[in-house]
Amino acid sequence: MFKMVSLDSSEYISSHEIPSNHPIIFIYFSPDCEHCQNEVKWILKDSEKLIKSNIYLVANEPFSELRKFYVNNNLEKERNIRVVKDYEYSFYRKFLPATTPFIAIYNTKKELIKLYTGETSVKSLIYSIQ
Predict the structure, then answer these.
(1) Neighbours of 18 (CB within 10 A)
(2) Is the whole model's pTM more than 0.90, yes or no?
(3) Structural domain range at position 41
(4) 3-class SS at 63?
(5) pLDDT tens, residue by residue, 8-20
(6) C-alpha to C-alpha distance for 107 and 80, rounded to whole angstroms
(7) Which residues of 64-78 are buried (b: 16+ CB within 10 A; e: fewer)?
């Protein structure tokens, strides 16, 4: 179980509480990581292909950096993408990602089905959630 908090700190989110009507894609990232920025750009470019998934961009950086990333990428337009802070390092401790981006994909039963390290094509993400 991961514990996250929304960008405005108004909502604490447990991975167990995320609706399971769609696959869940967790992307552990760093706002200043070029590979992470590329990953998000690719996802946004093909966002209609991932509309039936819940995407959480998870990071440990300060809220100010996360908000800047959110605004710079126009993520407010995306209904299924959220930027959240891993405030207890629970995601990090579970997976111990050596690099970013690091992607964990769960099915609608909340079973882990795939892990990716580094930049991953949207095609691969789509294949994993089908």
Answers:
(1) 18
(2) yes
(3) 3-129
(4) helix
(5) 888 999 988 888 8
(6) 15
(7) eebeebbeebebeeb
Residue 11 contacts residue 18 (beta carbons within 8 Å): no
Structure tokens at 47: 């966002």
**Separation CA 113–CA 24 (nearest Å):** 10
Give me the number of domains the chain comprises. 1
Residue 104 φ/ψ region, left for φ over 0, alpha for ψ in the -120 to 50 degree band, beta for the rest: beta
CATH of residue 32's domain is: 3.40.30.10
Continuous H helices in the chain? 34-45, 63-72, 90-95, 122-129
pLDDT of 111-129, one tens digit each? 999 999 999 999 999 999 9
Annotate 87-103 with DSSP letters as a single string. TT-HHHHHH--SSSSEE
